[in-house]
Amino acid sequence: METAQRVYKGLEGVYVLESSLCLIDTEHGKLYYLGYDVEELAEKSSYEEVSYLLLHGRLPKRPELEEFVGKLRSEMRLTPEEMRDVQYAAKRTGPMDALAAFYLFASKDPPQTKDPMEHAIRAVAKAGSVLGNVVRVQRGEEPMEPQPELGIAGNLVYLVTSKKPEQYQTEFLDDILILHAEHGVPASTFGAVVTASTLSDIYSSIVTGLMTLKGPLHGGAAEAAYYQFVEIGDPNRVESWLERALAEKRRVMGFGHRVYKIYDPRARYVKAMAARAAELAGGRVKTLYEIAVRLEQAAIERLSARGLYPNVDFWTPIVYTAIGIPPGYFTAVFAVSRVVGWVAHVVEYWKDNRLIRPLHLYTGPESGQRYVPIEERG
Ligand code: SDX
């Protein structure tokens, strides 16, 4: 099939696959997973139930959810070998790389099943237990046994804080995991599907997703946004900081999006959580929140005419800080959530697999160059 000979840089505006998993309604600033409004899912559902929705294409009946949660919980525990892998990786590299190392090791001794869904469920279940222990080891603390009965969000808070989570901590993190679970084919998910299209394994697809998500233009933005608030330091310094930043052609981290040209619906939901978190936590969380409020207002004034608004990464630093998650792990928490989006896309794509192999428009020298022996090259 002949296509017009032009390059769509960054694949901007190019449809690369069909998927039923999410609809990004850019006109109204809404996001739906299999038709369900994510803001309603964040309010009423759980990350476990949303994972079922994304993997099975519908909400579960109670017995189905109980069986699914049972499978997740059994896989949330880490075997002694897995705990050893986590400690080895955590001591040698950063959080995202440690997660990737774990999944690389996991693909070496997969459960004896060919069913991709079993591997998908295992991969989703492991992420929070692995990250929680990566945080501990990198802080010089002893790893801890995961607590599956706390759920994926509660277990992660427990491992990071070494304490049984407060209700609000679990709720906030569960909502954030729901909101980050799936978003069509951003760079990391597209990469995961490219890997899967070669019939590599699902764990390798996750490794591709992780290594892609960690870039500051993508999943790394929440950490960058946090340090942006810290650099500003005081709500009264926002306007002068913004003037200088834009003059230096710096990007306001947590702003702008390739698809949303109006307010990211996830950011709207997290903003409300950030306000509650600031009230609950007070202190520096409240200061960070007040800086973020002023920066949002000033940056919208300056940038909205160009379709630049807050995205999901702008407000999460406030909530993560209130929960007790250190800034160096914000991207990895995003990854813990997005593992389900990656594996859901892989399982969906494998139903009608086609190797992904685009073309390049040649711009090099004329073909047929004569090979000149090195002695004659001057
Ligand atoms: C995520 O795609 C997804 O779905 C991703 C994600 C998901 O759920 O997986 O939603 C998660 O990655 C959210 C995005 C997080 N990234 C950031 O917050 C980093 C800051 N934002 C950007 O760098 C930027 O907005 C992108 C990368 C998100 C989108 O960039 P595009 O679509 O490639 O747009 P661009 O870089 O071509 O920018 C267009 C113009 C440029 O100005 P000019 O060169 O034309 O003069 O807008 C400017 C940019 O300089 N611009 C910004 C800006 N983002 C774009 N100017 C100031 N601040 C910004 N944040």
Question: What can you see in these coordinates?
Answer:
This protein has helices spanning 38-44, 47-56, 62-76, 80-92, 95-106, 116-138, 151-161, 167-180, 187-197, 202-213, 221-232, 238-247, 265-281, 283-303, 312-323, 330-350, and strands spanning 22-25, 30-33, 36-37. It has 16 helices and three strands. The chain is globular. The N and C termini lie far apart (46 Å). The chain has a three-stranded antiparallel β-sheet. By secondary structure, the chain is mostly helical. S-citryldethia Coenzyme A binds at residues 183, 186, 217-219, 221, 251-259, 303, 306, 308, 311-313.
Helix content: 55-70%
SSE arrangement, N to C: EEEHHHHHHHHHHHHHHHH
Rounded to an integer in angstroms, the radius of gyration calculated over CA atoms is 22 Å
Bound molecules: s-citryldethia Coenzyme A
Strand order of the largest sheet: 1-2-3
In whole angstroms, how far apart are the ends? 46 Å
**Structural class by secondary-structure content:** mainly alpha
What is the overall silhouette?
Answer: globular
Number of beta strands? 3
Chain-averaged pLDDT: 96
Query: Low-confidence stretches at least 5 residues in length (pLDDT < 50)?
Result: none
Biggest beta sheet attributes:
3 strands, antiparallel
Number of helices, counting only DSSP H or I runs of 4 residues or more: 16
Q: Name the beta content range.
A: under 5%
